[in-house]
Amino acid sequence: MELNNELGDRLSAGTLCDRTKGTIPSNKLSLIMDLCSQSLMPAKDAFHTIVKTALQKDRWQITHDPYPLQAGSFNLAIDLGAQKVIAAERGEHKIAIEIKSFLGPSKISEFYSALGQFLAYRAALQVQESDRILYLAVPNNIYDQFFTTSFIQSLVEQHQMYLLIYDIDQEVIRRWQP
Protein backbone atom coordinates (compact mmCIF):
# COMPACT_ATOMS: atom_id res chain seq x y z
CA MET A 1 0.00 0.00 0.00
CA GLU A 2 1.37 3.39 -0.98
CA LEU A 3 0.56 5.06 2.35
CA ASN A 4 2.56 2.50 4.31
CA ASN A 5 5.57 2.98 2.03
CA GLU A 6 5.39 6.75 2.46
CA LEU A 7 5.10 6.38 6.23
CA GLY A 8 7.98 3.92 6.24
CA ASP A 9 10.09 6.35 4.23
CA ARG A 10 9.29 9.16 6.68
CA LEU A 11 10.11 6.99 9.69
CA SER A 12 13.33 5.77 8.09
CA ALA A 13 14.40 9.33 7.32
CA GLY A 14 13.58 10.45 10.86
CA THR A 15 15.51 7.52 12.35
CA LEU A 16 18.41 8.25 10.03
CA CYS A 17 18.45 11.87 11.20
CA ASP A 18 18.57 10.86 14.86
CA ARG A 19 21.17 8.12 14.46
CA THR A 20 23.63 10.00 12.28
CA LYS A 21 23.90 13.33 14.11
CA GLY A 22 27.56 14.28 14.21
CA THR A 23 28.68 11.27 12.16
CA ILE A 24 27.62 12.31 8.65
CA PRO A 25 30.35 12.50 5.99
CA SER A 26 30.38 15.99 4.48
CA ASN A 27 29.66 14.69 0.95
CA LYS A 28 26.37 13.12 2.21
CA LEU A 29 25.29 15.98 4.46
CA SER A 30 22.96 17.76 2.00
CA LEU A 31 21.16 14.51 1.09
CA ILE A 32 20.64 13.68 4.77
CA MET A 33 19.46 17.24 5.52
CA ASP A 34 16.89 16.97 2.72
CA LEU A 35 15.61 13.68 4.12
CA CYS A 36 15.45 15.11 7.63
CA SER A 37 13.52 18.21 6.61
CA GLN A 38 11.03 16.08 4.66
CA SER A 39 10.46 13.77 7.61
CA LEU A 40 9.71 16.68 9.93
CA MET A 41 6.96 18.05 7.70
CA PRO A 42 3.47 17.11 8.87
CA ALA A 43 2.08 14.22 6.83
CA LYS A 44 -1.27 14.85 5.16
CA ASP A 45 -4.02 12.49 6.18
CA ALA A 46 -4.97 9.74 3.73
CA PHE A 47 -8.23 11.49 2.86
CA HIS A 48 -6.98 15.10 2.69
CA THR A 49 -7.79 15.52 -1.01
CA ILE A 50 -11.20 13.91 -0.62
CA VAL A 51 -12.22 16.34 2.15
CA LYS A 52 -10.83 19.30 0.23
CA THR A 53 -12.83 18.27 -2.87
CA ALA A 54 -15.99 17.73 -0.76
CA LEU A 55 -15.68 21.22 0.72
CA GLN A 56 -15.22 22.76 -2.72
CA LYS A 57 -18.28 20.87 -4.01
CA ASP A 58 -20.19 22.41 -1.10
CA ARG A 59 -19.06 25.87 -2.29
CA TRP A 60 -16.44 26.46 0.39
CA GLN A 61 -13.39 28.43 -0.62
CA ILE A 62 -10.16 26.84 0.63
CA THR A 63 -8.18 29.69 2.17
CA HIS A 64 -5.34 27.71 3.77
CA ASP A 65 -3.76 24.33 3.01
CA PRO A 66 -2.58 23.90 5.68
CA TYR A 67 -3.87 26.53 8.12
CA PRO A 68 -0.83 27.81 10.09
CA LEU A 69 -1.40 28.16 13.81
CA GLN A 70 0.88 29.67 16.41
CA ALA A 71 0.53 28.49 20.02
CA GLY A 72 3.15 30.20 22.12
CA SER A 73 6.47 28.84 20.90
CA PHE A 74 4.80 25.99 18.98
CA ASN A 75 4.18 26.17 15.24
CA LEU A 76 1.10 24.06 14.51
CA ALA A 77 -0.85 23.39 11.33
CA ILE A 78 -4.50 22.45 10.96
CA ASP A 79 -5.14 20.52 7.74
CA LEU A 80 -7.42 23.07 6.01
CA GLY A 81 -8.89 26.53 6.43
CA ALA A 82 -12.02 27.51 4.47
CA GLN A 83 -14.63 30.22 4.28
CA LYS A 84 -18.05 30.55 2.74
CA VAL A 85 -19.94 33.75 2.04
CA ILE A 86 -23.50 33.18 3.24
CA ALA A 87 -25.19 36.47 2.42
CA ALA A 88 -24.00 40.03 2.02
CA GLU A 89 -25.66 41.16 5.23
CA ARG A 90 -24.67 38.09 7.26
CA GLY A 91 -21.00 37.98 6.34
CA GLU A 92 -19.00 34.81 6.07
CA HIS A 93 -18.39 31.62 7.98
CA LYS A 94 -14.78 30.64 8.61
CA ILE A 95 -13.80 27.11 9.51
CA ALA A 96 -10.67 25.06 10.10
CA ILE A 97 -10.74 21.34 9.47
CA GLU A 98 -8.55 18.67 11.04
CA ILE A 99 -8.89 15.54 8.91
CA LYS A 100 -8.70 12.06 10.38
CA SER A 101 -9.01 8.74 8.56
CA PHE A 102 -9.08 6.30 11.52
CA LEU A 103 -7.33 3.64 9.41
CA GLY A 104 -5.28 2.20 12.28
CA PRO A 105 -6.09 -0.98 14.19
CA SER A 106 -7.36 0.79 17.34
CA LYS A 107 -10.16 3.28 16.77
CA ILE A 108 -10.24 4.27 20.44
CA SER A 109 -6.50 5.07 20.47
CA GLU A 110 -6.88 7.14 17.33
CA PHE A 111 -9.85 8.91 18.92
CA TYR A 112 -7.81 9.75 22.04
CA SER A 113 -5.14 11.26 19.83
CA ALA A 114 -7.66 13.15 17.68
CA LEU A 115 -9.46 14.50 20.77
CA GLY A 116 -6.25 15.82 22.31
CA GLN A 117 -5.20 17.39 19.03
CA PHE A 118 -8.67 18.91 18.55
CA LEU A 119 -8.66 20.47 22.04
CA ALA A 120 -5.16 21.91 21.60
CA TYR A 121 -5.94 23.31 18.16
CA ARG A 122 -9.22 24.81 19.33
CA ALA A 123 -7.52 26.56 22.27
CA ALA A 124 -4.81 27.98 19.99
CA LEU A 125 -7.39 28.97 17.38
CA GLN A 126 -9.37 30.92 20.00
CA VAL A 127 -6.31 33.11 20.57
CA GLN A 128 -5.32 33.49 16.91
CA GLU A 129 -8.68 33.77 15.14
CA SER A 130 -11.64 33.34 17.47
CA ASP A 131 -14.28 33.62 14.74
CA ARG A 132 -12.97 30.52 12.93
CA ILE A 133 -14.69 27.28 14.03
CA LEU A 134 -12.72 24.05 14.23
CA TYR A 135 -14.19 20.82 12.85
CA LEU A 136 -12.88 17.28 13.06
CA ALA A 137 -13.46 15.56 9.70
CA VAL A 138 -14.18 11.82 9.89
CA PRO A 139 -15.26 9.32 7.22
CA ASN A 140 -18.97 8.43 7.25
CA ASN A 141 -18.31 4.70 7.77
CA ILE A 142 -16.22 5.45 10.89
CA TYR A 143 -18.87 7.87 12.12
CA ASP A 144 -21.58 5.22 11.69
CA GLN A 145 -19.57 2.40 13.31
CA PHE A 146 -17.70 4.27 16.04
CA PHE A 147 -18.88 7.83 16.66
CA THR A 148 -22.49 6.79 17.21
CA THR A 149 -21.64 4.68 20.27
CA SER A 150 -22.92 6.22 23.48
CA PHE A 151 -19.47 6.59 25.06
CA ILE A 152 -17.98 8.42 22.06
CA GLN A 153 -21.12 10.53 21.65
CA SER A 154 -20.88 11.59 25.30
CA LEU A 155 -17.23 12.60 24.82
CA VAL A 156 -18.05 14.53 21.65
CA GLU A 157 -20.82 16.38 23.48
CA GLN A 158 -18.81 16.93 26.67
CA HIS A 159 -15.91 18.45 24.72
CA GLN A 160 -18.21 20.31 22.32
CA MET A 161 -16.54 18.84 19.27
CA TYR A 162 -17.78 19.90 15.87
CA LEU A 163 -17.74 17.10 13.30
CA LEU A 164 -17.69 17.09 9.53
CA ILE A 165 -18.70 13.66 8.25
CA TYR A 166 -17.51 12.97 4.71
CA ASP A 167 -18.21 10.24 2.15
CA ILE A 168 -14.98 8.71 0.84
CA ASP A 169 -16.50 7.27 -2.35
CA GLN A 170 -18.68 10.21 -3.38
CA GLU A 171 -16.22 12.87 -2.14
CA VAL A 172 -19.03 14.86 -0.53
CA ILE A 173 -19.91 16.10 2.93
CA ARG A 174 -22.67 13.94 4.39
CA ARG A 175 -23.28 15.81 7.62
CA TRP A 176 -22.18 18.68 9.84
CA GLN A 177 -22.51 18.14 13.57
CA PRO A 178 -23.73 20.21 15.33
Largest β sheet strand count, sense and barrel closure? 6 strands, mixed
Number of helices: 6
**Shape descriptor:** globular
Strand content: 25-35%
Strand order of the largest sheet: 1-4-5-6-7-8
Helix content: 40-55%
Distance between the termini: 35 Å
Mean pLDDT score: 81
User: What is the number of strand segments?
Assistant: 8
SSE pattern = HHHEEEEEHEHHEE
What are the segments in which pLDDT stays under 50 over at least 5 consecutive residues?
1-24, 31-41
Based on CA atoms alone, the radius of gyration comes out at 18 Å
Structural class estimated from helices and strands? alpha/beta
Describe the structure.
There is one protein chain. The chain has 178 residues and is of the alpha/beta class. It has helices at residues 2-19, 29-40, 48-57, 107-128, 140-147, 150-158, and strands at 61-64, 67-71, 74-78, 80-87, 91-99, 132-139, 163-167, 172-177. It has a six-stranded mixed β-sheet with strand order 1-4-5-6-7-8, sandwiched between helices. Strands 2-3 form a two-stranded antiparallel ribbon. It starts with a helix and ends with a strand.
